[in-house]
Amino acid sequence: MRLVPRRLRLRPRLRRLPRLSRPDRPRLGRPRPGRLAGTLLAALLTAIGAGTVAYAAPSADAVPTADAAPQIDVPAAPMGWASWNSLASQVDYDTIKAQVDALVSSGMAEAGYEYVNIDEGWWWGTRDSKGNITVDTEQWPGGMKAIADYIHSKGLKAGIYTDAGKNGCGYFYPTPPGTPPAPGSGSEGHYEQDLRAFQEWGFDYVKVDWCGGQDEGLDQETTYRAISEANKAATAVTGRRLVLSLCEWGSGRPWNWAAGLGDLWRTSTDIIYWGQTPSATAMLSNFDQGLHPTAQHTGYYNDPDMLMVGMKGSNATLDRTHMSLWAVSGAPLLAGNDLTTMTRQTAGTLTNPEVIAVDQDPRGLQGVKVAEAAAGLQVYAKVLSGTGKRAVLLLNRTSAAKPITARWTDLGLTGAAASVRDVWKRASVGTHSGGYTATVPAGEAMLLTVSGTEAPGTAYQSTTGSFTVTAGTAGLKLADITYANGGTAPRTATLRVGGQYATTLALPPTGSPTARRTVSVLLSLAEGANTVTVSGGPDTITVQDLPGTDGVQAVGG
What we know:
Shape: globular
Distance between the termini: 24 Å
Strand content: 25-35%
Structural class: alpha/beta
Radius of gyration: 23 Å
Number of helices: 12
Number of strands: 25
Largest sheet: 8 strands, parallel
């Protein structure tokens, strides 16, 4: 039994764009695309107008400060290509090699698409007498290490697939029709053994599906916690860590607990099933289900599934809208089309550097809806690195072309003049005061970047890790957390707002014990006093109203 017909898959992430070197974290280590870099958003805003947040005086152990440390980069969402959408279980050495070659020749690798993820179908569930995975050597001459070596020879990274249960999705839902079922194709009972094998073969990424886990009634958080620990234990032996992609389709609300256990987690069922045609309905559904902004931070990501861009039945308009939605949400960009037959137009859509820069912004935050003046006419904003930088999506879900306005105060900016750029046209559309209005065709989206003036604010300091913030309105707020980490590896901290779920933060090395840097998160604050607790050393937190007059409090269950 499963949550949807057929199978559910989590698509890995790939990418490789210019970005600052990060010896601190072996997770998503690759360059970042041209990003809107900068130092750090200003501190907490003090009543900037009607509907914005008014903060009470800090608690006794917190003192206002104007000191602002520079922002630090966090690992961006993975970029790459995954085999499932176009190939299903019809994969072997030659088919993957052909996709690798096309990834390079098309310019996608240069644009930042880094991971080549082999999904289900690579293994039929066989093991030797010691429980070690055995593979079909006709399908994979030289074993799985040979294909991983080939992927690496092209400057890329390799991803592989398994299931949390005893049987994988290929047992329950063999695809395409006529494919024999694959019993035993899950890793339950062999978590550390299998993850160690993947590492020893040279893989860099693993997607762990949930068909077997669902069939057996396993608990999502408990199971993936065990898999995360097994990944660490295997790394202690091999020295090689796998990026961990959790694929339980949002069934256990992973946004409440997955940060720190995995690097990314699926938030919904598959965006497309074998034999289907890409659709705006599926795209919008997965986009909506993937918006959990308080969970996405410091290098951990919500995953709304692979891209349908360039697949048979799609079109240029749907492809651009798809990329725009994923970019503003900071989602993994995992292409799912057949790269060997890709058109030049599709390649251009997938490699637009300004779209990629929005998605891969080193602040690592998710965009949120900040306005909807009329039903279906929506404005989303993503806080970018630097000061006064935003990505803005104007989304028209109606059946007719309509004007949509982005107001600067809804973005956490002042109403002062701001420069606006059309990301797809890669051209300036001028300087505008107060906001910007554009007519968006029915069912389409416009992706912009805005450079304006950050709203002023106040920072709070604490020696106890407990901060009291009193908000005049309930809603999402932008928080910058200042810390120092003189080590060579990321340090973790725990963040909790009142009685909400705690979340694990990753605090990258800052260069010395006295060098202070900031990472950013989005907080859901109630109206009135909120207790924000941060363990692990941060001494300052700044909080800024993000959605302006349209903020709503996010409430979890």
